[in-house]
Amino acid sequence: MTATLARLHWGDPASARRALLVHGIGSSAATTWRLAEALAAAGWSATAVDLRGHGRSPRTADYRLTDYAGDLAATRPEGGGAWQAVVAHSLGGVAAVLAAGVDWAERLVLLDPALRLTPETARGVAASQRAARAANTVEAVSAANPHWHPVDVEEKVRAVEHASAWGIERTGESNAEDWDALDAALALPVPTLLLVPELGPLVDAAQQEALRANPRIRQQLIEGAGHNLHRDRLEATAQATLGWLG
Prior knowledge:
- The protein is built from eleven helices and seven strands.
- The longest helix has 16 residues, at 119-134.
- With 246 residues, the protein is α/β, with parallel strands linked by helices.
- Strands 1-3-2-4-5-6-7 form a seven-stranded mixed sheet, with helices on both faces.
- It has one domain (7-245): Alpha/Beta hydrolase fold, catalytic domain (Rossmann fold, 3-Layer(aba) Sandwich), CATH 3.40.50.
- The N and C termini lie far apart (36 Å).
């Protein structure tokens, strides 16, 4: 059963260029604010959603990757039609890959998507999120990420507070044995920009090499960034995104 996802919006709603932004696990629509602002400043109508179990979106019984993808596939611009671009990070990235089709999104920008995780890593997602909740203060998040914008810190704290702890636990556990969308990425039918962080990417070297088999995928390294590219190196991430979208 699909969930209707809560939305935030930046830019001119009447713009013919409509972009959807999708956050990663333990985050929220609001944590994409700087990338959304950059798109809006370039003339895009930018909409960000809270994934199921996050922010203001519904809590659900199921948290399979296919459930997240189904919600996204049912998320359309106001008035219907396809998104001209979908920009998605981590968990949002793998959900976007599974949702992708020419009738939903014309282009994808994937920010270090969680395409393939080992069972150990998938189950570790919940543990990392528990650690985040245990240290969920502005002071702790700022100390761990001193280069983040102060509002990124504030919104991350708020996102962790409002995410369903049970839903995050279920996400890791229910997908642990088959967290693998690499084949779906290899079959992507739409032009795709894969942004890879320099530091500890989830899309490791072996996956990067495999994805070169899909001529629709262009890969670009974001120097000095970790997994949270849009918070670690916003300017470089926005420049790469907008330069590719044109």
